Records
---
Amino acid sequence: METAEIRRRWLEFFEQKDHAVVPSASLLSDDPTLLFTVAGMVPFIPYFTGQQTPPWRRATSVQKCVRTLDIEEVGKTTRHGTFFQMNGNFSFGDYFKSEAIAYAWEFVTGSQQEGCLGFDPDSIWVTVLDGDDEAARIWQQEVGLPPERIQRRGLADNYWHTGVAGPGGPCSEIYVDRGPEHGQEGGPAVDEDRYLEIWNLVFMQEELTEVRSKTDFDVAGELPKKNIDTGMGLERVAYLLQGVDNLYEIDEIYPVIEAAEELSGRRYGAQEGDDVRFRVVADHVRTALMLINDGVTPGNEGRGYVLRRLLRRAVRSMRLLGVTEPALPRLLPVSRDVMAKSYPELVSGWSRISQIAYAEEEAFRRTLSAGTSILDAAVRQARESGRAQLAGDQAFTLHDTYGFPIDLTLEMAAENGLTVDEGGFRRLMAEQRERAKADARAKKSRHGDTSVYRQVADALGRQVEFTGYDEVASEGRVAGLLLDGTVVPTAQAGQEIELVLDRTPFYAEGGGQLPDGGTVRLAGGAVVEVYDVQSPITGLIVHRARVLSGEVGTGEQAHGEVDVARRRSISRAHTATHMVHKAIREALGDTATQAGSENAPGRFRFDFNATQALPPSVMRDVEARVNALLMDDLPVRAEVMSQQQAREAGAMALFGEKYGDQVRVVSVGEWAHELCGGTHARRSGQLGLVKLLGESSIGSGVRRVEALVGTDAYDFLAREHAIVGQLSEVLKARPEELPERIDGILSRLKEAEREIAAARQQQVLGAAATLAQQTRDVAGVSLLTHDAGDGVGGDDLRHLVTDLRARLGAERPAVVAVTGAAKGRPVVVVATNETARAAGLKAGSLVKVAAGVLGGGGGGKDDLAQGGGQDPSRTSEALAAVEHAVAETAGGR
Ligand code: SER
């Protein structure tokens, strides 16, 4: 049965049981504590915790998920995939254990003709949490499962939570016995390979405040309602029903393995080491495809880093399979074709997805070649010092700085007959991991702090009303007051507080827009200055503020007033960002999607995906287009609509949204439509002027445009105008003549520099006749050494040594070595005549001796060679070393 068919049956089954069919949410979870959507229930967390009211009491979905904790296990076991799809059915305070178990049993064991999966009831085993007698009883009495196939296990196996504070509950898991050829008797408690878990039913009933590990967490109490969250592994079911050996061989993945076989000329199934690589490739290519599809771009932290790591692991595995040419252009389209059945947007977004993936492969190929030359140098060094091993810190630097994976280092060192101090490497890696863990702990504890905000939110009992789209001043009531992270009833003049109002016009930082500032005046006469506004949990707006005078009390009436100048200036910048975004897309195509932005008073920056720099001509066009539309004075309006309508309107930035959500779309005329929760100018004319300042790269495939808006743009242009005026005056030229005038001055300057150089050379060469008299006899060789001093560089020195060599004649062996220094760095040039070369005196080797003393290197031919170094104070030592080498070579003849 095809994977797409299992998915279809799932949705149909639960739709018939009155579940709302909810499309998959984005892989980018909007829960800030989760990097990715890790389970089907993630988009529904606020419904379980009671933070939001669910629009339905029953729902079903097939959710895209990514888990990367087990990334090292991919390919080695039969059941670890970084991307997978989770079939889920959910009850929000509706049905509970009995129905959830009955539905699961029916779908798993019901016949295929009737739209179910048709597993043999005798092959099914289940587990329940030790102590959950109710679940065990339902399985035994209501389903009729024999008691020996119901196993009881501890928290580690049969309690489920997301790994961070939030909802959790005991669970019951369903397993399929794959038969004695796959392992031991005894059920899932004994062997989880033979007994494969396909479905987890979670009885979501508790609220966890702190989660330290799988089994160590604090339960704050019961959730407002008893819920059901189930998750069936779509890929696992597919591999059982498709009769293949593991999840990498199902219809949605295996074609990539076939393409990799073709590309590498090696066969899957021939050798275990290669097989793991094939599976890594197939898994990672698919995950990367789906992540980029949802808006992730490769980067050095967070989601971007995960994507980068996946792509690099895929490329490296291909390399270990012997493929050195670019692999993604051959593999990614294959993955797209199989996945597009369920995700048609892979086809419409293809040009953006493929550009990002291919650019990352190219970048990694460059890293590999840079890393390779560093590795070669390390190998040479080890050999020269007689070691048979690369040091751990070298392997670590290669890994950490050049992104060079350890197994590649191992393999390439082995090709050179060397080992690697793996112990040392692993120690350094462990230290680094410790640092990362400490960081993560620090992050988590910040999350722990949100409990105090929840306390305030609970007391308020609803979301804070944000009035700031229509008003800049509003009446409200103090709903909560925090001092040093603790709820307090009152606060006094001079104190720094966090203030929550039930209604507020203040915009909390978000969506790239900086927060408002302003003043809150209390009924009792207190005045509070607001300097930051944040929304630490959904639905709550927290003003960070200072009490200027009086006493603030909880429950008091409050009048909030936004600093209007700041707000307007930020709003203008935000509207300008949308316009620049749209104009860039017009110029570059829809692949130039937004990757971040910051809207500040009078200025903004806008990051977008593009594989190449924006040419100056495009920058000019974008700027001209935007400014022309300012004069058209387009109306700016915001509307709330369904995602479907937003899509149809061509709205930009449709990433990370939960499908089915209502979205707010901001439109500039009929021209630019964008999903946005921010504040804006009312008409484009209010922006006045937009000036793009520049464009730069901020990481692989992401460019940044910075710009000024309104008076800030005007001030900037006025300043530049004044500078041009000053230049005109100094250079006595009209502004339009300035470029030519400056060009002329620069070429005259160059000419003058050339003349000075020629004069100096003349001077140096003029001294040659006198210098030649200082020639000494060293072991039968005419040796002339000289330090020409600072300011004499390589060109001059080469002329000098060739001149001197000519003066020494050809009869006797002659060696000339001269040092100088340019820009603070020493230079050495050595020349030999033919007779000297015949006697084994080579300029190349002599220069190396001198450059070694100078702390550098050099080389060249036998007759003339040049080198350099770091330390100009050691030139006479360097010349002495040359003399010594000449004496040794000539004396040993
Ligand atoms: N949340 C549970 C899991 O991920 C069931 O959906 O296993």
Note: The mean pLDDT is 90.
---
Amino acid sequence: MCGIVGYVGLQSAGPILLEGLQRLEYRGYDSSGIAVVDRDGAIAVMKREGKLRTLQAAISEMPSGGTGIGHTRWATHGQPSDRNAHPHASSSGDVIVVQNGIVENYRELRAELQQQLDAEGRSWQSETDTEVIPELISRELAAGRSIESALGYAIGRLRGANAIAVVHRSQPDRIYAARTGSAGGIVIGYGDGEMFLASDLPALLPHTTTVYHLEDGDLAVVDSESLTIRRADREPYEPTPVQIDLDPVAIARGPYRHFMLKEIHEQPRALSDTIRGRARLDPPSALADDFDLPESTLRGIERVLVIGMGTSLHAAMIGRWWIEQIAGIPADFDNASEFRFRAPLLGPSTLVVAVTQSGETIDTLGAMNQVRERWGAPQVVITNVDGSEATRQADAAIIMRCGPEVGVASTKTFVASLASLYLLACRIGHAQGRLTDDDLTVQLEQLLTAPSLVERGIARAERCSEVAQRFSESSNFLVLGRGIEYALAMEAALKCKEISYVHAEGYAAGEMKHGPIALLDQGFPVIALAPRGPLFDKMTSAIQQVSARRAPVIAIGDEGDEELSDLVDHFIGVPPAPAPLTPFSLTPVIQLLAYQIALTRGLDIDQPRNLAKTVTVE
Ligand code: GLU
């Protein structure tokens, strides 16, 4: 989680680091800090508990120096406090480190280093796992190693997934960085006589679009002119950077009050871009071009397993449904963090589809790794970040074209991952001959209406706001759906939890009688997802059962459905959609409801408490 930034060049590092941290605050925001080194090797470390603005307010005089690193934290070890905020220094004060990840064996390493600290009358300055890293490096330097060698040694001692950036007093014009165990990314940005470093692209975009993504096992030495990679398995080399095609405007909030709202509104565009060129009608084809899974592999698939976490898991549930219905082959979904620690039975003819917005979700990467090592099954990743670790692990990737998603609660990447799964289902069904050209045409024509369904759903914002205001004081919601809408009920409940801090349960409507109905009374509102479709009558029976317990019902159904609106207390109409496409018509409304509840409650929507985007720790 957490955001790391770095700068080395002729400008003053401090303001650049703070601006970079601001752009990465979605990755963690319980404390932040910077370390700036001046030409003579004097290091100033400034850090504060709380959001970045607390740090900014505390800096009365910007430290001088053209080299520095910064961090915005999502605490894993040690509560948020000034003391636990990064950067962390060695007891000698020479080595300064920021870290993303967890040092799993930090207790063991602390115990090992303790004797030396005791002998010198020194003590640990924080409760974090991080602090062992500068201490290890500093001890090895004192024993005569070079910085690169000490860093390589220290990294080799850490268990777990970690990304770090380091500065050292004796090298005031360099930053060092390393990445191990599929920790969240580190990207190096190339400027003109200056170099940048960040966990994620938004911090680099205002400065450069020429970048290099560090790979696992890379140890990077960055000065103002160059990046050198050192690895255990080859001679040091200067890697070739790539040009990224992203507009800095994509990361600006523009006229919107929150990034989440901006990204909800960007959904029709994100969907159209993701589908463009991948759903062709004449002749019909799905994912014909930029998709690398060989036709023979596609033809041989006997089962599909879709994995993900959080919102991506809900996309996986819907993907399973489409793969069964459209491609006509057995499919399942799994939570990546559970999958990893079971003994699932896969074979080489199972296709594993991993959905991960960032391409760096640690549990999903762990599951992909296991799939490769144990079964050698083919893998497809659906992600918004080209060049991310997941794209390197998978045999083929479907890159969503959403642009950076900054709001912590995923919105546009949810609908774009759905479109990607739909296309994949079409491609598999066609490759296996279960979908004729005509069937494929029908499916693709349907998919092409998705952007407009989403757009019309977004147009219901005002109605969502009215309903949200009416229920903004409720502390519980039950969200019911059946079939494909069950997954959306789960997603709606997740959104309520994430940004509105409302306890909400997503349930399969048929399951309600088996427990949750006991909770219902006048003060327990129920949101029912009830578009017209094969299970509509069963949904209305569930609604009757809820109403009989006097729980208020908010139904989201087809525009103009008077029968449904007469049955319930509050009704929000969405554009009618063919059965498999209801996720596109319903999603904006469930997002907007959660958004409006959070807004009415005055919550911090883009940075909800305890959460961070890009979950790179277990
Ligand atoms: N484990 C470190 C800490 O708790 C880093 C967490 C992060 O990735 O933000 O400070």
Note: The mean pLDDT is 94.
